[in-house]
């Protein structure tokens, strides 16, 4: 099946339900696809919408409902103008030929971590994970990541894997698996609220480059055709995240009100947002919000290339290191 045919199929099946049906006079319609069901990672979008930042920037933004099709696929096929992309998704899909480019870093530093129950006195450092059981999610990235963390600490990088998806968190809590990976600002915060003490290893402490965990991205085709709308959207989105950092109580209420049927655990929402603020995820210690760090892009891209995770459109490991400077742009973030 050709790439053109896949794009046509995606567009045909999703366009009628995902494309916006409203547009305010004089405003340019812009759509953004979510990477998951609504959560605190998306708070800047809802704040920018509710506070009128988008309208003031000349764009009418439609936040598309989460679907089984990845945001990257929707953006590359031009079903959505923008989408929230994981770091791994950006690098793997772009390398495989998808028209994707990151325009905004939601996270200024890595939110993921390797976790295990706090009462595991036998686990003192990553090399102690050799021979244990990992509750995983089924990606090549996980194996490369965990193996390199263990080997960096002097271990062999040999462990058992049980693919469980999101059930891994329940399995960890009841002791069915020994360790897993989680997003601290969501699953980690929930574990704290639920009274399930955990200990963790940060990736960057064991040889894995720190990275922007996720991005807001678009296609080069869209950015070339709609530079003013793109700049207005990205800049207004940055204002939304800045507002969330400076006014967390109001921002949390906006997020909850926009997703009241989904976000019913208000305590988790507020605690997660506070963790994002306190950990300098939305705004770095140096004050950066949204800016993509070229050094971080190059470092994590090189790590993925060296680990053999990056593959071409035929599923073959790329032999030549890509030019990672083409994977992102800060040009649409204006003052």
TrEMBL record:
One of its GO terms (molecular function) is metal ion binding. One of its GO terms (biological process) is thiamine biosynthetic process. Keywords: Iron, Metal-binding, Pyridoxal phosphate, Signal, Thiamine biosynthesis, Transferase. It catalyses: N(6)-(pyridoxal phosphate)-L-lysyl-[4-amino-5-hydroxymethyl-2-methylpyrimidine phosphate synthase] + L-histidyl-[4-amino-5-hydroxymethyl-2-methylpyrimidine phosphate synthase] + 2 Fe(3+) + 4 H2O = L-lysyl-[4-amino-5-hydroxymethyl-2-methylpyrimidine phosphate synthase] + (2S)-2-amino-5-hydroxy-4-oxopentanoyl-[4-amino-5-hydroxymethyl-2-methylpyrimidine phosphate synthase] + 4-amino-2-methyl-5-(phosphooxymethyl)pyrimidine + 3-oxopropanoate + 2 Fe(2+) + 2 H(+). Residues 1-25 form the signal peptide. Residues 39-251 form the SsuA/THI5-like domain. Homodimer. Responsible for the formation of the pyrimidine heterocycle in the thiamine biosynthesis pathway. Catalyzes the formation of hydroxymethylpyrimidine phosphate (HMP-P) from histidine and pyridoxal phosphate (PLP). The protein uses PLP and the active site histidine to form HMP-P, generating an inactive enzyme. The enzyme can only undergo a single turnover, which suggests it is a suicide enzyme. PANTHER family: 4-AMINO-5-HYDROXYMETHYL-2-METHYLPYRIMIDINE PHOSPHATE SYNTHASE THI11-RELATED. This is Thiamine pyrimidine synthase.
């Amino acid at each position: 099946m050709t790439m053109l045919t896949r794009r046509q199929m995606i567009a045909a099946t999703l366009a009628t339900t995902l494309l916006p049906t409203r547009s305010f006079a004089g405003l340019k319609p812009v759509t953004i696809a979510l990477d998951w069901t609504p959560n605190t990672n998306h708070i800047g979008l809802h704040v920018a919408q509710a506070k009128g930042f988008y309208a003031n920037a000349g764009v009418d933004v439609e936040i598309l409902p989460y679907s089984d099709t990845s945001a990257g696929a929707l953006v590359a096929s031009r079903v959505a103008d923008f989408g929230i992309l994981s770091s791994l998704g950006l690098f793997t899909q772009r390398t495989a030929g998808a028209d994707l480019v990151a325009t905004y870093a939601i996270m200024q530093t890595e939110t993921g971590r390797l976790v295990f129950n706090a009462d595991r006195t036998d686990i003192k450092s990553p090399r102690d994970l050799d021979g244990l059981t990992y509750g995983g999610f089924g990606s090549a990235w996980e194996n490369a990541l965990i193996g390199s963390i263990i080997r960096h600490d002097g271990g062999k990088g040999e462990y058992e894997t049980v693919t469980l998806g999101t059930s891994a968190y329940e399995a960890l809590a009841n002791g069915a698996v020994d360790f897993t990976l989680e997003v601290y600002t969501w699953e980690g915060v929930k574990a704290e609220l639920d009274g399930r003490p955990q200990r963790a290893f940060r990736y960057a402490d064991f040889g894995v480059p720190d990275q922007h965990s996720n991005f807001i991205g678009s296609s080069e085709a869209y950015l070339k055709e709609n530079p003013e709308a793109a700049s207005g959207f990205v800049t207004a989105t940055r204002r939304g995240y800045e507002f969330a950092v400076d006014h967390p109580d109001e921002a949390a209420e906006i997020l909850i009100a926009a997703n009241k049927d989904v976000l019913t655990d208000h305590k988790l929402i507020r605690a997660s947002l506070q963790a994002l603020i306190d950990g300098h995820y939305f705004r770095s210690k140096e004050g950066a919000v949204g800016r993509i760090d070229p050094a971080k892009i190059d470092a994590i891209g090189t790590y993925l290339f060296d680990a053999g995770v990056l593959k071409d459109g035929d599923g073959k490991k790329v032999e030549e290191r890509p030019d990672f400077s083409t994977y992102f742009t800060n040009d649409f973030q204006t003052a």
